[in-house]
Amino acid sequence: MKKGDHLFLVDGSGYIFRAYHALPPLTRKSDGLPVGAVAGFCNMLWKLMQDARNTDVGVVPTHFAVIFDYSAKTFRNEMYPEYKANRSAPPDDLIPQFGLIRQATRAFDLPCLEIEGFEADDLIATYARLACEAGADTTIISSDKDLMQLVGPTVSMYDPMKDREIKVPEVIEKWGVPPEKMIDLQALTGDSIDNVPGVPGIGPKTAAQLLEQFGDLDTLLARASEIKQNKRRESIIEHAEKARISRELVRLKHDVPVPEGLDDLVLQPPNGPKLIGFLKAMEFSTLTRRVAEATGADAAAIEAMPVAVEFDGKAHGPDLDAGDAAQPAPAGPAGEAASGPQAMTPAALVTARAEAAAANPIDRTAYVTIRDLATLEAWLADARETGILSIDTETTSLFPMEAELVGFSIATRPGKAAYVPLSHRNGKGDLLGGGELIEGQIPFHDALAVLKPVLADRSVLKVGQNIKYDWVLLYRLGLPMAPLDDTMLISYVLDGGSSSGNTGGHGMDKLSERWLGHIPIPYKDVAGSGKSQITFDMVDIDRATAYAAEDADVALRLWQVLKPRLVADGLTAVYERLERPLIDVIGRMERRGIAVDRQILSRLSGDFAQSAAALEDEIYQLAGERFNIGSPKQLGDILFGKMGFAGATKTATGQWSTSARILEDLAAEGHELPRKIVDWRQLTKLKSTYTDALPGYINRDTKRVHTCYSMASTSTGRLSSSEPNLQNIPIRTAEGRKIRTAFVAEPGHKLISADYSQIELRVLAHVADIPQLRQAFADGIDIHAMTASEMFSVPVEGMPSEVRRRAKAINFGIIYGISAFGLANQLSIPREEAGAYIRKYFERFPGIRDYMDATKATARDKGFVETIFGRRAHYPEIRSSNPQVRAFNERAAINAPIQGSAADIIRRAMVRIEAALADAGLDDVEMLLQVHDELIFEAPEGQVEKAIPVIRQVMEHAAMPAVSMRVPLHVDARAADNWDEAH
């Protein structure tokens, strides 16, 4: 190793536990071997290796090694027997994965280093010292505070989970001391996880203050009598020896007799066949495909290698180069090799699951009503045995922040489902109270007390259909639930926009009919419909059991059928990155809600009513008579019958069409009456939809408005909101912006609006790789002015606003596949002129035309297009013989990767932002709303200045590390007392 080289040292043991806890339990399909940590480790290491070999990313290592702990006992135990004595044994399902992970490391052709008697951190410290002496740099892949003592001019750390580099300033920011004082700081604070004693009552902040005052630990202990605070002084004097022992326990050894020299750690080119052989043995199909693509290997021609499995807790696996010397795995229950590769591919598993579902029809008579705690406890014990619990709640409302829990249904195996009634009433007695409770139900709080630990048990996967609803409801009742899987979202990822996943296609009834061949009981058959509909608490318990237990049973069966398709279709990453982790994030947003000022709404409602009345008088004068402006028939008769405006069309019922498009066209031609009608419609809609309706949505308990987000209602991945819809508040009109003034921060708080700037144009510049756009965004140039300058040869300096406006219309129009006709209407120019603009645009930016043509070709070939993160939007009708249908699908297919990628980016930001705020000590800053490209937060006034940079940092780097954007993302963020002022 020489000066200029760069050594990467991966804290392998830290990687193992991060991988284990980051993912839900995963087993090898052929034999049930636990492989979740192995899968997470391999994916993390592959991503790191790909970035490490990518010169565009940044630092490229020349040397690389993965370091592991050999065993729990080291020289530190001889020094202090209680060291790490309180650590429990590894989970049973993790033990066999230790050896597999070491074998995985060797399959990556990376040094796998460990020494008996020393911890991984000691080897890392030694190699970092050796690299420094050779004049090279070192990056430690870890976020462990124990390693921060090593950070210095040539040594840094990198946290791959947060995509964050840790250098000297970051250590000081986090702990208040530079790296060289981290040993003394840890000696004072101790470490409860490692059982390092430290000095009782001394936390990180106090320790940093003391070291700032006295310089180092020895000086502090020698001059402890000078400490002014009695309790602090006495504790340090009394426990001085513990501090000294702790210092030796946390001090890393720099002189370990390492097994390999630096020159043995040279990073080698990837060995595709070797790695693929291991991955095929583990049955990691998606990663196998990625490695094959990246290395040019033919995965189909590579056999799964023999891989030994150790179940006794040993930390070592055979050398992958040992060939026939590798020992076979223990035999399975049928005498088959437990680790031997099986013929069942992911696609075959999908088929097998579908066949099993078809062969096991649903029998509602087998469902059980659970009426006592002992039975409920037995069912929940079975859930712990199977590791899965399908759950569904029955309530009195569609809105989880308003609903009362009536009962819940559970299923632990297909066909084994039950309903637990809690609050069913008979309708007798006090009608205001809803009637008397029916006998034979478990007391409400007793049932929830038994259910709570299972819902919180991370070893039991909770499955549901639209499980976000149940999450919000149960969280309100003090029952947090994790981990989660949602059959609706799995279907959405698999079939978004396809003929099997169109509007309404992800609902349970549709999914059940399609995948299980079973039609569930309609809700109206149980609770009635219309005026005769009753709330679920008034439904007979036997009928409720058949309906509710069926929901849990169907959800579990759907999960068994659909979940393997994620692997078979290569969409696991989309679900795991963009959907599943967002469930509880959005659940918390819905639960928090946002404050609304009733007085502002009332005042605006009055103002809108007066303005609408004034417009009505003007409309009547222009029309020459009074009529019902809200009646399409009367309005049509006035515009096209009496006044004879051109461009009239009729609807299927024979009436004149008075759609917004027709009125806008007439207004654009200079007709005053249609313009007044458009203005009147906008005002009355604002009044009825928002200023009059919003007070009715204010929750009686929280006094806030709680919108409901739908995660599976658009083809592109965008969220939608309802009850109330807060994403359709118009912001291009002054009246629309006034609505936002009613959304306010609580006293002592501010609302923070963080909005992506022109994100879809930036995504377009990335996916179409347009040099001019990329450069303009990189330089921070006004993109619309740049476009106008390119197209019309007009200098940016002093550019007329009209020229820029036309370029802006074209820029955004291109994203949505705008036609010459559409652009002509938007700019009020002849169609020929608009067509000439579009042609010139494509001449100046030929890459955009190339992107559009390639995207349409892909959509016609595959039936779908993908976002930059792999989300698919299906357009099966793009091959339609109907030109209009085909053209619509082509425009949608062009737009979907752009709008969908922007939607995915903000989803990734939402998933990460709460943890980033917590890490920054900003737990009181809460995310309240998502409105397209904007996130709204509420923060204490004193935390606003610190919160905005954190929010902006997460949002602007949300695409990383999955995608390295060719253009920078930019976020405008500001704080104010209300939403309008903050935006």
Give a description of the structure.
There is one protein chain. This protein is of the alpha/beta class and 983 residues long. Among the domains are: 6-167 and 253-265, 5'-nuclease (Rossmann fold), CATH 3.40.50; 354-592, Ribonuclease H-like superfamily/Ribonuclease H (Nucleotidyltransferase, domain 5, 2-Layer Sandwich), CATH 3.30.420.10; 713-770 and 849-983, 2-Layer Sandwich (Alpha-Beta Plaits), CATH 3.30.70.370. The chain is 47% helix and 10% strand. The protein has 38 helices and 22 strands. Strands 3-2-1-4-5-6 form a 6-stranded mixed beta sheet. A 6-stranded mixed beta sheet has the order 7-10-9-8-11-12, sandwiched between helices. A 4-stranded antiparallel beta sheet has the order 20-21-17-22. β9 (405-413) and β10 form a beta hairpin. α24 packs antiparallel against α27 (672-691). The longest helix has 37 residues, at 883-919. The protein starts with 5 loop residues before the first strand and ends with a helix.
Keywords:
10% strand, alpha/beta, 47% helix, Rossmann fold, Nucleotidyltransferase, domain 5, DNA replication, exonuclease, globular, Alpha-Beta Plaits, six-stranded mixed sheet, 22 strands, 983 residues, DNA-binding
Number of beta strands: 22
C-alpha Rg (nearest Å)? 32 Å
Strand order of the largest sheet: 3-2-1-4-5-6
Q: Residue-averaged pLDDT, rounded?
A: 86
Strand content: 5-15%
